[in-house]
Description:
By secondary structure, the protein is of the alpha+beta class. The protein has helices at 3-19, 41-52, 58-74, 81-93, 96-107, 143-153, 194-207; strands at 26-29, 38-39, 126-131, 136-141, 169-172, 179-180, 185-191, 208-211, 221-225. It is globular and about 50 Å long. The two termini are 21 Å apart.
Amino acid sequence: KTQEAARELATTMRDIGKDVGLQVRAVISGMDQPLGWAVGNALEVSEAVQTLQGRGPTDLQEVAFTLGAHLLHMGGKVGSVEEGVGLMRETLAAGRGIEKFRQFVQNQGGNPAFIDDLSLLPQAPVQVDIIAEQEGYVASIDAEAIGRASVEIGAGRATKSEQIDFAVGFVVHKKVGDRVSVGDPLVTIHARTHEAASRIRPSLRAAFQVSAASVALPPVVLEVIS
């Protein structure tokens, strides 16, 4: 829950790897708000496809580029982390990333048709917007509250025996630092029923705090333990 605790955990994991002869680096990233736009199984798959097509959220891309660039550097494929980021950007722009993902799906016996038609993914029958009730800037988003709401709506599970509904979840339209006007959608609930959407609506609405003063964009990558 704190950067200090994350640093302690990352350092311990690095040292465990070092003790058995492995290279280990840890990227500490901010999770004060949801990463990207999507929360929920099919919604996140859709977001991943859009990201591989070069249309994804910038914060998700930054984390992916950072992780991938460090792996490329550790594996000796590039001479520096910066070169690794450049290679990943080039690969993304050339469309090689989405084609490799298509191979992944095929090799696991899946039908890759959804990559070209995202409507083939599971779709929730009910979609409800939570709108901004005041003008200003998004000051904070309670990621833990959104995570708990996702479990309650069926996108996750509290116990191993519970079933996951792949279609349900949330799409976040405004992130910390974004300007909002009254009536702007903050988040869209994708639910199985109107009753399910109504149950989590109060907790989701409370997860978004809007202030009159502008708010600085929070960093996505906080530090790297190497």
